Each structure stands twice: as C-alpha cells, then as structure tokens.
Amino acid sequence: MVRIFGILAGIGFVIVLLWSLLWGAIAFIQEPPQPTAEHEFHKHPRDAQLPSAGLLGKYDNQQLQRGFQVYKEVCAACHGLKYVAFRDLEALGYSEPEVKAIADQWPIESPSVNPETGEAATRKNIPADHFPSPYPNEVAARAANNNALPPDLSLITKARHDGANYVYSLLTGYREPEAELLRKFPDSKPGEGLHHNPYFANLNIAMPAPIVSEGQVSYLDGTRPTVDQMSKDVAAFLAWTAEPKLQQRKAAGLGAVLFILAFCFLAYGAYRNVWRDKAH
Ligand code: HEC
C-alpha cells in the first residue's frame, strides 16, 4: 500500500516538473531573452603576463616597487589599502628606515585624538599603521566622487574575476564607445560623470581614467613609464597586496606534489615486492 502511494507521489512530481518545463520552453520560444549591451560588448581581461602568474610564478620586487609608486602617486588620492601596513612594504625590498620615511611622509595622516582637548585630530603615520583611507567615511567618499564609491584596493584582485589582469585591462581600457554599440544600444552611451570602458561589468565606470600619459610617474630604475607599463606595475602591486604569501603558497604546493609523487613510486615498489612470487 505504502509503495503505491510512493509511486503515485513520484508520478505526481514528474508530471508537475514536465508541465513547468513545457511552459518554460513555450515562453522561451515565444519571447527569447533580449540581447544586452553587457552580454555583447563586455570584454574579457587581457593577459598582463605578470611574473607572478602561472604555476611557478614569483613576484618581481622591482616591479612591485614601481607599482607601489604608481599607487602612491596616482591611486592613493581616492583608494585606501586598509589591510596593508606600511611595515609590510619591507617585503618589497624597502629597508626599515625607508619604510619609516614613507610612513612619516604619507600625505594622509592617521586619525587620532588631541590628548589635551580630546577632540578628533590626526597624527603622522608610523610603520605599524595601516594605509589610511583618503576619506573619513563613505558619505565623504561618495560626495567627492559623483556619488560613486572608490573601493578599498587591498583585496580587489581577489574580488574580481582574473583580478590582476582585470585591473591592468581596466586601466588601459578607456576608449570612446564603439559606433556599433551606440547603434544597437543607444542607452549605453555613458551618462554624466561616467566613462566608457568595455572591461567594466556594465561598460560605464564612474572612475575617470587615472593613468593617461607617458611619464605621469617618474620611475627611478630607468624603466620607461608608458601607460601600459604603469598599469601593469600597479596591477602587479595589487596582486601582492591581496596575496603577499603567493610565493610561499606556490612553493609549498610544488613541494607537496613532489612528496606525493615520491610516495607513489614507493607504494608501487612495495606492491611489486609484496606480490613478487605470486601469479596474479
Ligand atoms: C579621482 C579618484 C580616483 C582615482 C585617482 C583612482 N580611482 Fe579607481 N575608482 C574611483 C571610483 C569613483 C571608483 C568606483 C567606480 C564605479 O563604481 O563606477 C573606482 C573604482 C576602481 C576599481 C574597481 C572597479 C570595479 O570593478 O568595481 C579599481 C580596480 C580601481 N578603481 C583601480 C584604480 C587604480 C589602480 C588607480 C590608480 C592607478 C585608481 N583606481 C585611481 C576613483 C578613482
């Protein structure tokens, strides 16, 4: 008896599913989904060919230092790096006194209180401080940026698909919208305060192109500061801020694979040994 109920309930479920599938299919045929501008014109990030990419990728400290310089001179005006402390920069090859000087001379000071009046004040940064945000709060950040919020960049290369390549492509991707895009989707013309960028999810970004001309940053190591190079370097730096231990992770992974391979050979040898004089 119970079994019959079970079978009937199962058949009932199948009928309901088939019914909804049928109506779904009819709706799909009658009204196929409309193509969207994002679907047709959004571009996949270009490969920045960073040395940290790939199985055995490593950071290039010279490049990270150049990327830090670009962050400092260009991006820091609008974006914070709240998960990175000044002293973390020692990993890029800066000495302790250099880090101290960088923290001390950082244009944005850390929040503090006046010890006598108790009022809010600011003080110079020390190496243990994290990079201070350029705005006191979100309302101030939006007010200064046409109501858009510049995100903290510490983890941005983890928060976006193909992170470092995305940042590189975004920075070098500003252009006039294609004529075909405007013909097919007149609504995607960038509105007031927006800029066309095919790498940004909805094609119109509120950030004006931050890196626009060769030599915007003067590199000390003789590398030519082209727009492409500066974008690549800052993308490499942001890959480091999001994953400072990438090299250790890759080395540990490689070690683990070699270890397991060695054990595979040992296990195979043991198997051959145990079954040596048995026909099998
Ligand atoms: C004048 C202020 C300003 C400067 C300078 C600036 N940005 Fe931005 N940035 C913004 C704003 C505003 C947004 C938010 C855009 C939006 O949501 O449409 C943003 C967003 C971003 C995003 C996130 C895009 C996304 O997918 O959400 C990245 C990455 C970024 N900026 C990187 C940089 C880098 C790297 C630099 C330095 C080379 C830089 N920005 C300089 C204002 C700025």
Walk me through what this model shows.
The longest helix is centred in the N-terminal third of the chain and has 29 residues, at 2-30. This protein has helices at 2-30, 37-41, 61-73, 96-105, 138-144, 156-159, 163-172, 179-184, 227-242, 246-274; strands at residues 81-85, 110-113, 120-123, 130-131, 195-196, 204-205. Strand 2 and strand 3 (120-123) form a beta hairpin. Helix 3 crosses helix 9 (227-242) and helix 7 (163-172) runs antiparallel to helix 9 (227-242). It folds into two domains: 37-84 and 130-244, Cytochrome Bc1 Complex, Chain D, domain 2; 246-280. The mean pLDDT is 95. The protein has 280 residues and is mainly α. It has ten helices and six strands, in the order αααβαβββααααββαα. The structure holds heme C. Residues 70, 74-75, 77-79, 145, 148, 150-151, 153, 156, 160, 167, 170-171, 200, 205-207, 210-211, 234 line the site of heme C.
